[in-house]
Design a protein that fits this description.
The complex is a heterodimer.
Chain A (H helix, E strand, L loop, with lengths): L6 H17 L2 H9 L8 H9 L18 H13 L6 H15 L2 H12 L5 E4 L14 E6 L2 E12 L6 E7 L10 E7 L5 E7 L5 E12 L4 E2 L6 H36 L1 E2 L2 E2 L4 H30 L4 H27 L10 H12 L5 H11 L3
Parallel strand pairs in A: 1-4
Antiparallel strand pairs in A: 2-3, 3-7, 4-5, 5-8, 6-7, 9-10
Chain B lengths: L1 H17 L25 H13 L17 H13 L9 H13 L2 H12 L5 E4 L15 E4 L3 E12 L6 E7 L10 E7 L5 E6 L8 E12 L3 E2 L5 H21 L8 H8 L12 H29 L11 H20 L13 H13 L9 H12 L5
Classes of the chains: A alpha+beta, B alpha+beta.
The structure holds flavin-adenine dinucleotide.
The site of flavin-adenine dinucleotide has 20 residues of chain B, from β1, β3 and α11.
Chain lengths: 380, 397
């Protein structure tokens, strides 16, 4: 693996950065929040991103995709992370789309993926129940066979973009008990299926999520994704890939939060000098710089490991999540502190980054979850 | 790529055949090889191994062949290092010649200087020390006062250096001296090479907290330095000094960036010391286990960042801002590792000498103490952070 960008990748990064700055400033996130926008992101902009080819990056050419890797998608997500764009890459492309691409039958893929790639269809992955915390093997739902059909019951929380998804991919326990990797199945449930109740949830980062209740939801055998009882490992792979995507977004966010903070350090004056002359702040700025450099390396490595199918992929994913989670929270906490009073106001953007940092850190496993996973993978 | 694999195969076979068995495994001598006129090998085979490697250019793998190096590409050198590690072979030679003055002469030396100094460095015949710091000039290095008075065909040196690592073992010194006391402080400094046997040069060792005395005070009293031994230009020594510090920081970072090397992993050591930890499964001390993870993760992040920098250099890109963090991250990481190793060993980490402690436990104590110097030598961590804030982040003075 080489930790540099190819010329093509440089071009993607540049295009995405320009797009984010021009079309998706943080002001847009404010408007969506303040207007209590029902969708929570812009469908028009999503369509534009699809037309630019970004939504289709990881999908096969047969479905209209570009058949590229996470290394490329990460560049787009990093650029969008800089301006906190809320468009549904994680939910539709990496989670829902990722599960379909990994496990869907030819018919299922044909039915959904071209629409995903064109920006017309949205997906979500309902993997997390009220008792799951970060354990993917605790699903919060059950699946019972009735003739040719399956009947789903249970509850899911904070399903990313669940309130607008055209279909939910739902993990449920079809055998064994909660906590076991064996015995989990994945089902494709269209949004209007009887017994499915979806309630939008409002989170601190103003991103979109939904609570989902399943009450006797019936799905056909053709709506099972992959093998019955065999979805546990797939779920981990899909969430790992989405974690890398989230880390790339976090990398962009922390970089922007730091750039904003640096600007403030160079312009705010106290005691007759700009506050950036104070060594107590300089050294902390240097520490932030160090953390971001390290984060960049691990995100690049994790994305490439995923593309190359490296044997230590899971370690690298956990490493990236810990590094990015801790760094993003640190950078934004320090940002608010170094802004002083204005850092606490809604008017300044730095607070938006701090909120997003916290939400991202607690998504797909927090730092102690991933440190524990690293130790287990290392045999201790 | 096929060429590289051929190179790997040949190199492995050569290394395996040529490294004497006495230097491998449990009973191999612990003392590293620094070479020089005063060197006494801990085992005669150390000299055999050094000579064989020097003959093949493997002591300075990437230096040009005409100056005693191996003429290897960066990729080949990386393979050589990997194979050395895989076979758990000791490095044939260490020292400031290879890591500091050699690369600096390749950059700033005349052809005569390269021909005179580089081959003896590669063969381990001449050991070098670094005469930068003075009692009054540490972090503020450019404030140095050692005088070099122009006497026509030579300079007369007067003054003293301090913290000169291994000055009592070294054959030559590279020193910063003041040639123009009137100029702005950075602009009156010259970079000089000097034989330590020159009359008027003397050293006195200073004892460290780790008990060893690897550094010295070095005195110059009317010591004669030849003009041919000025590197680059008179009064332009600061440029050379900074380039050498760059090599020094890279060397320090690389020494700490690779993590465990061939030694036991932190988790293996924890199994040795924690009661009830012999069996597989999670370590019984959850806090210690988490600290091990943190050090391992940070070590990996650091190694990946160095790889990113190397990959960029290989692709012909300028070194990016990431390289400014290597010294501070590598040294602080090593200190955390050493402290963790002490905590893992528990009471067995407290040995100083004598009975009741294994030899690796006694080494541990000393190397923990030695590691405290890592964030001081070669520019302190505070100075590194100043440099990042100013040069990379553009924060004003
Ligand atoms: C093990 C070891 C080996 C060494 N080997 C060599 C050698 O071979 N050759 C050689 O020439 N030198 C050598 N040194 C010396 C080393 O380079 C100096 O010790 C170092 O540069 C610091 O200088 P000082 O000791 O005078 O400390 P000072 O400069 O007095 O610093 C004291 C404290 O003040 C802080 N400080 C100073 N200035 C600032 C500032 N502007 N902002 C914030 N904090 C500041 C420092 O970070 C430090 O914490 C060695 C040192 C050690 C520990």
């Amino acid at each position: 693996m080489e930790l540099i960008l190819t010329e093509d990748q440089e071009l993607i990064a540049k295009t995405a950065a320009d797009f984010a700055a021009e079309r998706s400033p943080v002001a847009r996130v404010r408007e969506l929040r303040d207007g209590r926008d029902a969708t929570g992101f812009s469908r028009d902009l999503w369509k534009e991103m699809a037309d630019l080819g970004w939504v289709g990056i990881p999908f096969a050419e047969a479905h209209g995709g570009a058949d590229l890797g996470l290394a490329e998608l990460a560049l787009v997500l990093e650029a969008l992370g800089r301006t906190l764009a809320p468009e549904p890459f994680l939910s539709t492309v990496l989670l829902g789309g990722g599960a379909l691409a990994a496990q869907g039958s030819a018919e299922q893929q044909e039915q959904w993926l071209p629409g995903v790639v064109s920006g017309d269809k949205l997906l979500a992955l309902a993997y997390q129940g009220p008792e799951s915390r970060y354990d993917l093997a605790v699903t919060g739902a059950t699946a019972r066979r009735e003739g040719d059909e399956w009947v789903l019951d249970g509850e899911k929380i904070q399903v990313l973009d669940g309130h607008v998804a055209d279909a939910l991919l739902v993990s449920a326990r079809s055998s064994g008990s909660e906590g076991e990797t064996e015995g989990i199945s994945l089902f494709l449930v269209p949004k209007d299926r009887a017994g499915l109740e979806i309630v939008r949830q409002i989170r601190v980062d103003h991103r979109n999520a939904a609570g989902v209740r399943l009450s006797g939801v019936r799905v056909g055998a053709d709506e099972v994704l992959g093998a019955i009882d065999g979805a546990g490992a797939i779920l981990e792979q899909v969430v790992d890939r989405a974690t890398v995507g989230l880390c790339a977004e976090m990398l962009g966010g922390m970089q922007q939060a730091f750039d904003l903070t640096l600007e403030h350090l160079k312009s705010r004056e106290q005691f007759g000098e700009v506050i950036g002359t104070f060594q107590a702040l300089k050294h902390r700025a240097a520490d932030i710089f160090i953390e971001i450099e390290l984060a960049r390396s691990v995100v690049m490595a994790a994305a490439r490991a995923a593309d190359e199918g490296a044997s230590d992929l899971r370690q690298l994913v956990s490493l990236a999540k810990v590094r990015c989670g801790d760094a993003y929270v640190h950078v934004t906490n320090e940002g608010v502190q170094m802004y002083g009073g204005v850092g606490m106001t809604d008017e300044y953007d730095i607070g938006f980054y701090m909120k997003r940092a916290r939400a991202a850190q607690l998504t797909f496993g927090d730092s102690s979850h991933h440190r524990d996973r690293w130790a287990k993978l290392g045999g201790y | 790529m096929a060429d590289l694999e051929t190179f790997r195969g040949e190199t492995r076979a050569w290394l395996d055949a040529q490294c004497p068995s006495t230097l491998r495994g449990q009973d191999a001598p612990v003392a590293a090889v620094w070479g020089g006129r005063k060197w006494q090998p801990a085992h005669p085979d150390q000299r055999v191994w050094l000579e064989r490697c020097a003959e093949r250019g493997f002591t300075a793998p990437t230096w040009p062949k005409e100056f005693g190096g191996g003429g290897l590409s960066k990729d080949e050198a990386k393979i050589l290092a990997q194979e050395m590690r895989a076979l758990r072979l000791p490095p044939p030679l260490l020292g400031f010649g290879l890591t500091m003055i050699g690369p600096t002469l390749l950059q700033y030396g005349t052809d005569d200087q390269k021909r005179e100094h580089l081959p003896p460095i590669c063969r381990g015949e001449i050991r070098w020390c670094q005469g930068y710091s003075e009692p009054g000039a540490g972090s503020d290095l450019a404030g140095l006062q050692t005088r070099a008075e122009d006497c026509g065909d030579h300079y007369l040196l007067n003054g003293s250096k301090i913290w000169t690592s291994d000055a009592d073992q070294a054959d030559w010194i590279f020193a910063l001296v003041r040639t123009d006391p009137e100029a702005k402080k950075q602009e009156g400094i010259t970079f000089l090479l000097l034989d330590m046997e020159t009359p008027g040069v003397s050293v006195s060792p200073i004892q460290l907290i780790s008990g060893a005395s690897p550094f010295c005070e070095t005195y110059f009293e009317n010591a004669k330095a030849l003009k041919k031994d000025v590197v680059f230009k008179v009064n332009a020594g600061w440029t050379v000094a900074k380039a050498l510090l760059g090599h020094e920081r890279t060397m320090v970072a690389e020494a700490f960036g690779s993590g465990e090397g061939s030694r036991a992993t932190l988790a293996e050591r924890a199994r040795r010391y924690l009661p009830g930890a012999e069996a597989a499964g999670p370590l019984p001390d959850a806090t210690l286990r988490d600290r091990i993870v943190q050090v391992e993760m940070d070590t990996r992040s650091f190694a990946l960042t160095m790889q990113r920098s190397r990959d960029a250099a290989k692709a012909g890109q300028q070194p990016g801002p990431e390289s400014s963090i290597f010294k501070v991250v590598g040294t602080e990481l090593n200190q955390r590792r050493q402290e963790l190793l002490m905590d893992i060993a528990g009471p067995q980490g407290l040995g100083w000498e004598g009975e009741g402690f294994e030899s690796d436990e006694l080494d541990l104590t000393r190397s923990w103490l030695r590691s405290r110097g890592n964030t001081i030598e070669g520019g302190t961590s505070e100075i590194q952070r100043n440099v990042i804030a100013k040069r990379v982040l553009g924060l004003p003075d």
